[in-house]
Structure formats: C-alpha cells, structure tokens
C-alpha cells in the first residue's frame, strides 16, 4: 500500500482511505487522466479547504487564521479556520465566516459552485451566482471577492491532492483535470498535464 503523503499526515485526518497513489508502473501520456477519481469525504475536504485557504491568503504557518480585506473604505474580516463546505450532486457550497462593522455577529457567506458529477464531468469549469448568499450589506460589496476566494481555495485543494497522487511520464506532478461533487463527496480527478510545447514545421 502506498504511503500517505506528508501533507495529508500533517493534517491529522480521521480517515485517508479515500486517497490512493498512481501505480508506479503506469505511465500517463500528456493530457491523460489518472484511472481513479479521488472521492474525498466532506469532513476531510473541510480540513483540506482550510489548509488550502492559508496558502491562498498567503498566511505564515503559525499566524492567526484571520485576514482583513479592504476595498475603498470597506473592510471585511474573514475567519479561515471557520471555512466549511458541503457537497450535493453537481454542487459544492463553500461557506466563509465574516465580520464587519455593519454586522452584530459573525455571518457565514455562502458561495455555490456548479461542478460536474461522476457521470457528467465538466473539467475545471465552474459556475456560480452573481451574489453570495448571506446579508446583503456584505454581498453587495464583497460577492466577487468571496467567489474568487472560494474558487481559488477549491482549485488549490485539487492541485495539492493531484500532485500527491503521482507523476506523469516526464516526472512532473499530476494536475487536476476535473472537480466534481456527489452527496457528501468532493471529487478530484488528477491527470497528466498537457504538452504545450510546439515546433515549427
């Protein structure tokens, strides 16, 4: 059995049986997907999302898990350690806890992404709503930033997992070829990166 990668071990997940390495004898040509999709239980996906968010927010390892966004005269405090997600067939919902002067308490803003499923893959294409779910005083100013942040966190999570699975025939880490969702499962399909080199004929 392949050894669980260090970054997963460091997160102290309760269960890593969903993770599996690429068979070392299998050589993936450019653009070829790995034979298996990672089916990540939501509980594990939440831990991975919070870890990915620190990289996206450019936070040092031991710093507090909060950031303050600014836009003009507006400020929004974002609590990364409270990030959450839920999954249904073709839908990933990311919840971002925030606070600002106009709120009497923390509120969870919801960003919903339309993604693929096991039977209907959409690659890395995701759709979302123009406005995040939650108090309008936040959504009216911060929806674009919240959507971009949620998307980048999901993408970085998928990049980390795909790279941990193995390498292509050129010795380069695999990359995500598709993100999807089923009930209580986040789906990540690793693949060998495309060959973007070209030669004049």
Counting DSSP E segments of at least 2 residues, the number of strands comes to 9
Q: Mind summarizing the main beta sheet?
A: 6 strands, antiparallel
Relative helix content: 10-25%
* Shape estimate: globular
C-alpha-based Rg, rounded: 18 Å
SS-derived structural category: alpha+beta
Average pLDDT works out at: 93
SSE order in H/E notation? HEHEEEEEEHEE
Strand content: 25-35%
Gap from first CA to last CA: 46 Å
Note poorly predicted spans. none
Continuous helix count: 3
Describe the protein in words.
The longest helix is centred in the last third of the chain and has 30 residues, at 136-165. The chain is built from three helices and nine strands. It is α+β, with helices and mostly antiparallel strands and 201 residues long. The strands form two sheets. Strands 2, 3, 4, 5, 6 and 7 form a six-stranded antiparallel beta sheet that branches. A three-stranded antiparallel beta sheet has the order 1-9-8. α2 (42-56) crosses α3.
Offer a quick outline of the entry.
The chain is α+β, with helices and mostly antiparallel strands.
């Amino acid at each position: 059995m392949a050894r669980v990668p260090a970054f997963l071990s460091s997160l102290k997940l309760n269960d890593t049986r969903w993770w599996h390495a690429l068979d070392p004898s299998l050589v993936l040509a450019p653009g070829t997907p790995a034979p298996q999709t990672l089916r990540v239980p939501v509980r594990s996906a939440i831990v991975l999302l919070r870890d990915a968010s620190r990289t996206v927010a450019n936070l040092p390892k031991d710093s507090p898990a909060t950031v303050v966004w600014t836009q003009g005269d507006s400020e929004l405090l974002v609590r990364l350690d409270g990030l959450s997600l839920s999954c249904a067939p073709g839908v990933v919902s990311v919840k971002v806890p925030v606070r600002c002067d106009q709120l009497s308490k923390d509120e969870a803003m919801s960003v919903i992404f339309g993604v693929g499923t096991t039977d209907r893959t959409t690659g890395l294409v995701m759709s979302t709503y123009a406005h995040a779910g939650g108090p309008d005083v936040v959504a009216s100013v911060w929806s674009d930033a919240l959507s971009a942040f949620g998307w980048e966190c999901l993408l970085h999570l998928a990049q980390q997992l795909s790279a941990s699975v193995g390498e292509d025939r050129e010795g380069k880490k695999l990359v995500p070829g598709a993100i999807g969702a089923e009930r209580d499962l986040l789906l990540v399909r690793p693949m060998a990166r495309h060959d973007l080199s070209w030669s004049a004929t």
